[in-house]
Amino acid sequence: MIGPALLLATLVGSRITIEPAGKIYQDDVVTILVTSDKVLSDYTAGTRITTGNLTNVRREMFRRVPNAPPIVVFSATPIAPGLAWVEATISDYADKPVDQIPRVTFDVAPDLARASDDPNQIFRSQAAAKRFPLFIRTGADRARAFVGQRIEIWWEAVTTQKSLEYPTFYPKIENAPEISSFRSSSPLTVDASQPPPWHTQIVRLAVVAKKPGVLHVPERLIDLVDRAPDGTETRVRRWSTPVDIEAVPLPAEAARLPVGHFKIECRAVHERSIYWPSVGVDIFGSGDLTAIDFPRPVRTPYPIIVTKTDHWEAWDANHSRWIYEVHSHDPLTVTMPELTFEYFDPDAQKIEGIGCEKNPVLIRTDETPVAPAARMKDSDPVPPLRGDWHAPAIAGVFAAIGLAMVFFAMRR
Asked: Can you give the residue ranges of every domain in the chain?
C-alpha cells in the first residue's frame, strides 16, 4: 500500500519528500523519499544524499512504482531543534552525476519528553501535538567511572497504551565491546499514582569501559507496534536520548586489579576424602572477574593444585570459583593456608584486601596408612590408587589374544 507522501512523490519528476508531513520533533524518525527517473533500478548506490542537522542516515529500501520514477527511501534522526535540510545527487554507473535535486529544508521541534520529568505533563504535550503517547529515556548510574568499573545503563519506554508490543532490543555501546554482566527486560508495569496510569518497560545493561575516554551510549531506534483490539496496527518509531560517560584510568598500582566491591567465601568441598580433599573458593562482587588470576597459597610441604571452574553457579563475570586440591598420598590433617584477594575500591579510591574468615580443615583418609619409610619422594612416579584393576585387566586381555593367535596358528 502506498502512503500519501509516497504517492505524491510518484506523480512528479525529481524531488525530495520528507515524512512525517506535519510537524517533525527531535525524537522522530525522518523518512526521506528521493524520486528521480535517472535512478537505475539495480544501482541504488548511485543515489547519495547530503544532510544538515541530521544523523543516523541510512538507506532503507528501493521502490519502483508502475508508470512512475523509482524512489529511494532513506531514514535519519534530527540532531537538535532548528533548521534541517536534505539534498540529493544521482550518479550513473561511472559515478558521473546525472541529476541534482535541490535542497529541501524543514524545521525540527524540541523533543517533548526532554522538556519535563513528569510523565503526565509529557503525555498532555503529546496529546496536544497529536502524537502517539510514548517517550523513551536513557540513563546511567554514574557519569564518571574508572576503567573496569561496572556501569549500569537503562532504557525506559513509557506509554499510556497497554497494547504496545516491544521488540527484541540489543543495544551496542561504544568503548564497551564486551558486556560484563547482564541484559534484562522488565515486563510492562502499571503506575496509577496519577491519572492517567502509564505503563513502563525497562531494558538494563551492565558494561565496563575497556580504556580511558568517553563511553558513548548512542541514540537507539525503538521500532514498536501498537495493536488495537480490533486488529488494527500502528507503527511507532522513536529515538532514545544519547548518554556520555567519562572513563578515567586506574592508578598504576591497581591497573591489573578488578574494580568494584567484593566478598569471598571458602568452604570444604571434600572435607574427608580418600582421593584429594578440596576447598572451593567463591568470589562475588560488582566488578569484572573474568581476567583475574587468583593468588596461590603460601608454600606447603604438600602440593596444592589450583584450578578455575566453570561451575553452573559461577556463570557470570561477577562470580569466580576456584578449587584448591591437596595432593598427598599420605593420610593427613591440614588447615588450608591463608588465601587473600585484592581489588580496587572505586569509592574509597584505594586497594582493599579480603580473605577467608575461617580456613577449612581437610583430612585425607586411608584404610592402610603408608609407613614413613615407604613414603614417596617428589621425584618418584605416582603409583596407581589402591584397587586400580585397569592395568592387570588390560594385561589379561592381551595375553588371551596372544594365546588365541597361537592356537589358530597350530590348527593350520
From this structure: 4-109, 112-249, 262-364
pTM over the 0.85 mark: no
**How far is 363 from 332, CA to CA, in rounded Å?**
6
Q: How far apart are CA 376 and CA 303, in angstroms?
A: 13
What is the distance of C-alpha 317 from the center of its chain? 12
Residue of 136, 118, 107 whose CA lies nearest to 236:
136
CATH topology assigned to domain 4-109: Immunoglobulin-like (2.60.40)
Cβ-contact 345, 354 below 8 angstroms: no
DSSP-derived pairing of the beta strands 262-270 and 30-35: unpaired
Per the structure block, which three cell numbers stand in for 99? 541529476
**CA 179, 209, 242, 45 torsion: positive or negative?**
negative
Place of cell 588390560: 394
- Specify burial of residue 332 (Cβ count, 10 A radius: 0-12, 13-18, 19+): middle
Cα angle 388-277-394, degrees, rounded to a multiple of 5: 15
Where does residue 405 rank: exposed (0-12), middle (13-18), buried (19+ CB within 10 A)? Answer: exposed
259 DSSP 8-state letter: B
The ranges of the chain with pLDDT < 70 are: 1-13, 39-45, 162-189, 191-196, 290-299, 310-318, 366-400, 402-412
> Which amino acid, residue 247?
A
Of the candidates 280, 292, 286, 293, the one whose C-alpha atom is nearest the C-alpha of residue 263 is 286
Question: What superfamily in CATH does domain 112-249 come from?
Answer: Immunoglobulins (2.60.40.10)
**Rounded Cα–Cα distance for residues 197 and 194 (Å):** 6
The CA angle 373-374-379, to the nearest 5 degrees, is 110
